[in-house]
Design brief:
This protein is of the alpha/beta class. The chain contains 29 helices and 18 strands. The structure holds (2S,3S)-3-hydroxy-2-methylbutanoyl-COA (T1G).
Length: 698
């Protein structure tokens, strides 16, 4: 065995004859922060100085070769050695350097390997350049070395999609020289010996001539302008890949400049915030409680939501018993689930040969007693408190001791539902978002008496289903729908005062939303909002401004896409504004004595976002959401909020609390009831605080 040095450091060098094994060990994902880079550099320089090593094999400990640069360092002053400089040093090494990779090699992790003189993958490896997903581009030679190995089209695909490339494909593309099986150190030693014996050729990636492909570059630019008009870094990435046609040193300069340009954009900050938010929301008071077993799921109700939830569970490998009241309803549920699974096969989310075995894990029954062995039962019937209470009372007698009893209600009081059972500690709200087998958000609504391990079971289910679980307190609409209900009122006020549905939708789609509020309402069905407003009518304060436009559309039977017309006319594609709906809007304005005025798009966005932020601040203030980050997660993963803006409260921080307060005070002159400054925002405006401060304190 060779001598080992630096056993307590992130980089260890082990000598085995003329082989130098350089192991990176920086849990949990071998992120290449500045201290790790400095250790790699020092180890390499020491080996160069010794001259006794005939080959250097870089490998790493743990399940991930490297997740790339340490994204927690972004925004802070860069520290030497800069990644590109270190990688140039590796490539220039007189001693051949090879990389042996397991698990994931992403971003700067893959770029490290690209700077090496050969790359060996271990079965199961995935490689990628996901930098565009966080508002950047490969900034350590990836845009220069990858196209030399794979050709420009494949490099564009990998760098612009940010996808994880399976090892077999990486071998075919020329990213890997070999694909082996076995334990990392052993594979590294074998590969190093192969270099020494001439059985494994090595070469500098920079010495490979690039095959230019201007057509591929232009096609990529055209596609990006169409599909991702808001994003900066993908187009910058195309520019950098185009520069790979230059000598390496010049190309690297172009890449560096484009990378630094992107590093300074609000999009980079927003996308990295979104990355961390997805993980931060798992940090809840109940996280150390032990979740209960989760293999058999019961679902009551085979409608859109119930069958979507059942589909999500089946896709996650769980077995599901679906319960409905009649054979016909059950058959409808099963056929929806079957259709969902076929869709998952088409989308590449389920292997075709696994579809039947997945469906085989579904049991359909009209006997609620068949749920007696389920570990967790989710009720997904229509939104009526009496019906739900009856179901939970019956479930209480049927479900096994310790089973978690959950309701998929989107706003009803979970405390009231829990009180209908003898085991309120086992009752939880699990609010899925339609389509439940696609949308990643799961609001985990914690009733007053919920046991910690029951809450922990909700989060374990979210993880198992690949969803983002967000803890919510009990109030009407929990986090997302409560905030949605507030800012949709502002959308109707804008409508009433002179803006058109199409203008409002377009302004918000230009802001980055996938769809504006009126297209979303037409898609969901205007009758849903109609029922909600009727339900809330008895509680509506007299001073609240009420806009009856949507009610009148519903009275005409215009529910949106499901009836063919709503704000838009779906008999045409794309659906234009529906003229009779415009007539209703004009008639209601006249009835209210309103002289419509024009609204600049900026004002529409300003009012809409200020309304969203103000109710989101109240949701945090009331403790319904644990942190501002939890509200951001809800809107990023459940409401189509533009990811590059990081979520409503991250976006609020880019405006500053003082600006938001002054807007609310300005609008309050028109409507003091609707526009009220939340106390939390007022305090932040006075003391210069931010929502991010609250996240850090949370
Ligand atoms: N930097 C810092 N922390 C990271 C990290 C990273 N790159 N990747 C993960 N973490 C943390 C994560 O926050 C979590 O922390 C823990 O590690 C486990 O992660 C110059 C500039 C690798 C697929 O974009 O995609 O290189 O919550 O829960 O599900 O060109 O992490 O436990 O405190 O996600 O097994 C490009 C980002 C960087 C990859 C593993 N790289 N990471 O997934 O574990 S930019 C990325 C991931 C770059 C160069 C540029 C995933 C993963 P905590 P996890 P996982």
């Amino acid at each position: 065995m060779g001598s080992e040095t630096g056993a307590d450091r992130a980089v260890r060098v082990e000598r085995v004859g003329r082989v130098a094994l350089l192991e990176i060990d920086n849990p949990p994902v071998n992120a290449l922060g500045s201290s790790v880079r400095a250790e790699i550099q020092a180890a390499l320089r020491a080996l160069q100085a010794e001259e006794s090593a005939g080959v250097i094999a870089i490998h790493s400990a743990g399940r991930t070769f490297s997740a790339g640069a340490d994204i927690r360092e972004f925004g802070k002053p860069p520290r030497a050695p800069a990644m590109p400089d270190l990688y140039d040093e590796i490539e220039a090494s007189a001693i051949p350097v090879i990389a042996v990779m397991q698990g994931m090699a992403l971003g700067g992790g893959l770029e490290l390997a690209l700077a090496c003189h050969a790359r060996i993958g271990i079965e199961g490896l995935k490689v990628g350049q996901p930098e565009v997903l966080i508002g950047l581009l490969p900034g350590a030679g990836g845009t220069q070395r990858l196209p030399r190995l794979t050709g420009v089209p494949a490099a564009l695909d990998i760098c612009l999609s940010g996808r994880k490339v399976p090892a077999e494909e990486a071998l075919k593309l020329g990213i890997l020289d070999r694909l082996e099986a076995g334990e990392t150190r052993a594979v590294a030693l074998d590969a190093a010996e192969a270099v020494l014996s001439g059985r494994l050729a090595t070469r500098r990636t920079s010495e490979i001539d690039l095959v230019a492909d201007p057509a591929a570059l232009e096609a990529a630019r055209d596609r990006l302008r169409r599909t991702q008009p808001h994003l900066v870094s993908p187009l910058a990435c195309v520019d950098a890949i185009e520069a790979a046609a230059l000598p390496l040193a010049e190309g690297l300069k172009v890449e560096r400049q484009r990378f630094l340009d992107c590093m300074d954009t609000p999009q980079r900050a927003g996308l990295i915030h979104a990355f961390f938010v997805e993980r931060a929301v798992a940090n809840v008071p109940e996280k150390s409680a032990t979740p209960r077993p989760l293999s058999a799921l019961g679902v009551i109700g085979g409608g859109t939501m119930g069958s979507g939830i059942a589909t999500a569970a089946l896709l996650a490998g769980l077995s599901v018993t679906l319960d409905e009241v009649s054979d016909e309803a059950l058959a409808r549920g099963v056929s929806t689930i079957t259709r969902n699974l076929d869709g998952a096969v088409k989308r590449g989310k389920l292997a075709a040969d696994a579809r039947d075995s997945t469906l085989a894990r579904l049991t359909a029954s009209t006997e609620m007693a068949d749920l007696g062995e389920a570990d967790l039962i989710i009720e997904a019937v229509f939104e009526n408190m009496e019906v739900k209470k009856d179901i939970f009372t019956r479930l209480d007698k049927i479900a096994k001791p310790g089973a978690v009893l959950a309701s998929n209600t989107s706003y009803l009081n979970i405390n009231e539902i829990a009180a209908a059972t003898s085991r309120p500690g086992d009752v939880l709200g699990l609010h899925f978002f339609s389509p439940a087998h696609v949308m990643r958000l799961l609001e985990i609504v914690v009733a007053d008496r919920a046991a910690p391990e029951v809450v922990a079971t909700g989060f374990a289910l979210a993880r198992r289903l690949g969803k983002v679980g967000v803890r919510a307190g009990v109030c009407d609409g929990f986090i997302g729908n409560r905030i949605l209900s507030h800012y949709l009122k502002e959308a109707t006020y804008l409508l009433m005062d002179g803006a058109s549905p199409a203008q409002i939708d377009r302004a918000l789609e230009d802001f980055g939303f996938a769809m504006g509020p009126f297209r979303v309402s037409d898609l969901a069905g205007l009758d849903i909002g109609w029922a909600e407003r009727k339900r809330k009518a008895p509680m509506r304060p007299p001073e609240e401004r009420y806009v009856p436009i949507a009610d009148v559309l519903c009275e005409h039977g215009w529910f949106g896409r499901k009836t063919g017309q709503g704000y838009y006319d779906y008999s045409q594609d794309p659906a234009p504004p529906y003229p009779p709906a415009m007539e209703v809007i004009e008639a209601e304005r006249a009835k209210a004595g309103i002289v419509p005025r024009s609204f600049p798009d900026e004002e529409i966005v300003e009012r809409y976002m200020t309304a969203m932020i103000s109710e989101a601040a109240r949701v945090v203030e009331d403790g319904i959401a644990l942190r501002p980050a939890d509200v951001d997660a809800v809107f990023l993963f459940g409401y189509g909020f533009p990811r590059f803006r990081g979520g409503p409260l991250h976006y609020a921080d880019t405006l500053g609390a003082a600006e938001i307060v002054s807007r609310i005070e300005r609008y309050a002159a028109e409507d003091p009831h609707y526009w009220q400054v939340p106390a939390l925002l007022r305090r932040m405006a006075e003391d210069g605080g931010s929502f991010d401060d609250l996240n850090r304190a949370g």
